[in-house]
Amino acid sequence: MSDIRLPLGGLKFSVRVAILCTRGDRLLTNCADGLSFNFLPGGALSTDEDTLDCARREWEEETGTPPGPLRLVGVIENFFGPPQKRQHEIGFYYRMDAPAELPDRTFSVVDNAEVTCRRVPFDEIDHTPVYPLVAATLLNVPEGEVRHIVNRE
What we know:
Number of helices: 1
Number of strands: 11
Largest sheet: 9 strands, mixed
Distance between the termini: 30 Å
Order of helices and strands: EEEEEHEEEEEE
Shape: globular
C-alpha cells in the first residue's frame, strides 16, 4: 500500500485522516519542536484502505493503544501553504473519546519520538493554534451528522 500523497498540477495533493480525541474539556494534539502550532493525530490514507481503518491504524501507530469508538464528524477540503508550496488536502475527521489506556500526561508519539502528544483545553484552542484551524468547529457536531468544510488558508 502507498500513502495518497502526490505532486499534482503544481501542488501537493493528499488524503488525510485525523482524530479529534477528547477527554473532558481537552483535545489531544500533536506538537513538535520548531513548530508554532499543533496538529491532530492521524496521517495519510493508504491506497486500498478505507478512512475508518486508516483512523484506527494511525491511532495505534501514534499512541500504542487501541482506539475507542470512532465517529466521522467532518470532511475538510483544505487548501494551504505558500504559493511555491501550495497543498490541497482532503481530510476525514473522526471524533473519539479518549480510551482509558491513554495516559493523561504528555507523551511522545510511538512512531515518531520528535512529536509529542498533549492535551489543549477547549477554551485555549484560540490561543494555541491547532491546524487546520476550522477543525475545532467539528468538536460539537451532533451524533448522526457530518459537516463538510472548504478551508482556504
